[in-house]
Each structure stands twice: as C-alpha cells, then as structure tokens.
UniProtKB/TrEMBL annotation:
Keywords: Methyltransferase, Transferase. GO terms for molecular function: RNA binding; RNA methyltransferase activity. The keyword Zinc-finger does not apply. It comes from the Bacteria. InterPro entries: Alpha/beta_knot_MTases (IPR029028), rRNA_MeTrfase_TrmH (IPR004441), SpoU_MeTrfase (IPR001537), tRNA_m1G_MTases_N (IPR029026). GO terms for biological process: methylation; RNA processing. It comes from Sulfidibacter corallicola. Coiled coil: none annotated. Residues 1-32 are annotated as: Disordered. Residues 1-15 have a biased composition (Polar residues). GO terms for cellular component: cytosol. Residues 122-263 form the tRNA/rRNA methyltransferase SpoU type domain. This is 23S rRNA (Guanosine(2251)-2'-O)-methyltransferase RlmB.
Length: 274
C-alpha cells in the first residue's frame, strides 16, 4: 500500500502537461536582479547566504523525488506551477528563480579577511574581457578552483548581469566579483599587500605557466582573446606566463586559458597539503 506522501508525490506529477498559468507579456527583472533557470544555478542561489531569492518556481513533474526533497527546506520561497511558464519566462529542468544579485566587499576587506584566516589569496583579474559568456564561464571555473575573488574594471568590461549569472551555473553566488576603478592601480596596491601579480601573455620574456609558484599569494591577470593585456597592465605584472600552442591556432578562448592556468594552481596547492 502506498503511503499518503507517495500518493501526494504522484498527484503532483500529472501525466498531461497543463497550460501556463501566467499570461501577457513577460516581466523584466528589476535592477540588480536576475531570473535564473536550471537546477544547478537555482540550488546554489537557495544555498548561498550572499544571494536573496525573491521567488522560486518549480514544476514537480520535471523534478526527481530526490531533487524535490532537497529543495523542501526552502518551501517558503517556492511556488509549484501547473505549467512551465513564470512571469519572467520558462522553467528549465523544472525550476526557475528570481534572485537579487550579491553585493561584495572591496578588495582590501577581502584581503583582510583572508589574512585573518591565514589563507594565501588566489585572485583573478580580467583586462578588456567584454563577453558575458566568457565572464560566466570564468566565474564557474573560479568557483571550482577555489579562487577567492574575481576583479573586473568598472569601465570597458562586462559586469554581472542575467546572462553572466545564468552561464555561471550559480558560481556568481559564491565568488566575490569586485569592480575596480583603475586596474593598474589595483594591481600595484595588491603587490604592496604582498601578492605576486602574474600576467598571461605569449612572447619573449614569458615563462611556461607551470613554472609559477601558485602556493604563494597570487593574482592572475587574464586578457581578452585577440586584445590580450594592455601595455600598462603588462607593466604592472611581476612576471608573465604563457600557454604553448601545439596546433595551428595561436591562442585559446580566455575562459579555456583561465581554466588551464587555474588548475595548475589547484594542483600545486593540493600537492602542498598532501
């Protein structure tokens, strides 16, 4: 005999799709808000203390019982739909959420906190990166690699928006994304705080990326594909590293290059603790 809980679960998963419950034009998220879809992204937003979930929607027919149970602690913020449409768009993987984007401390506060914990900072800065897809991918890589903060210029750069948040798969909820007014001054200030500033640029004077000791306080600077690092940015770096290319192409996408360098840092830092 099935339990009442199992019966309730079956009732919440109708065999025939229902019509959307919302009509009319879609709403646009407000300032500093984003509409996130998909299980990974919404789950991280619900779990993060840095993100305010304004409202979440689920289609129980699309969620496994395990996923359904995992979001039950957040039931006050969740509305079950009879269809696949919300005021802000469709669901993906049976879930979507309107969230308020996080606000982070400045770089000095971040470094003060790491110093108090005795943690060697691992930071990334972006120079001339303007593609939101790249920024979202880099955020996701940074979260996986344990990066403590991602720095982006306030001008001539992409910032956190709905596309970036969606592509990051929830990483934006955990990795501090800090806007800086002047990247060169920020790099110089970081050096005064004891960080090694490592730029990525191919050519004479660059060393292989694996010859850098990322166990030290490190700030990795990545430039956009094609544009690379600006001259003043290069001048602010302690040294430069490169990723040798074995094929016909002369460069990697900035997201792929960032992942390659950061996971060398992960390897070194894990080896140091083994």
């Amino acid at each position: 005999m099935k339990s009442s809980r199992a019966n309730k679960w079956q009732k919440s998963r109708p065999s025939q799709p229902a019509k959307p419950v919302f009509g009319g034009p879609r709403r646009q998220p407000g300032k500093n808000e984003a509409y996130i879809t998909g299980w990974n992204g919404v789950r991280e937003c619900l779990a993060s203390p840095h993100v305010k979930v304004v409202q979440a929607w689920i289609d129980p027919r699309k969620l496994s019982r395990e996923d359904y149970e995992r979001i039950r602690p957040y039931s006050r913020q969740i509305e079950e739909l009879k269809g696949k449409e919300t005021p802000y768009g469709e669901l993906s993987q049976g879930i979507g959420a309107l969230v308020r984007l996080p606000e982070w401390d400045d770089l000095d506060d971040l470094l003060d906190g790491l110093e108090a914990k005795g943690v060697a900072p691992l930071l990334v800065a972006l120079d001339q990166v303007e593609d939101p897809m790249n920024l979202g991918q880099i955020l996701r890589t940074c979260e996986g690699a344990g990066v403590h903060g991602l720095l982006v210029p306030k001008h001539r750069a992409i910032h956190l928006n709905q596309t970036v948040a969606q592509v990051s798969q929830g990483a934006f909820a955990w990795v501090p994304l800090i806007e800086v007014t002047n990247l060169r001054h920020t790099l110089d200030s970081a050096k005064q705080r004891g960080l090694w500033v490592i730029g990525t640029a191919a050519g004479e004077g660059s060393r292989p990326w694996y010859q850098v000791d990322f166990r030290e306080n490190s700030l990795l600077v990545m430039g956009a594909e094609g544009k690379g690092l600006r001259r003043l940015t290069v001048e602010s770096c302690d040294f430069l590293v490169e990723l040798p290319m074995a094929g016909r192409l002369d460069s990697l996408n900035v997201g792929a290059a960032t992942a390659a360098v950061l996971y060398e840092a992960v390897r070194q830092r894990h080896s140091a603790t083994d």
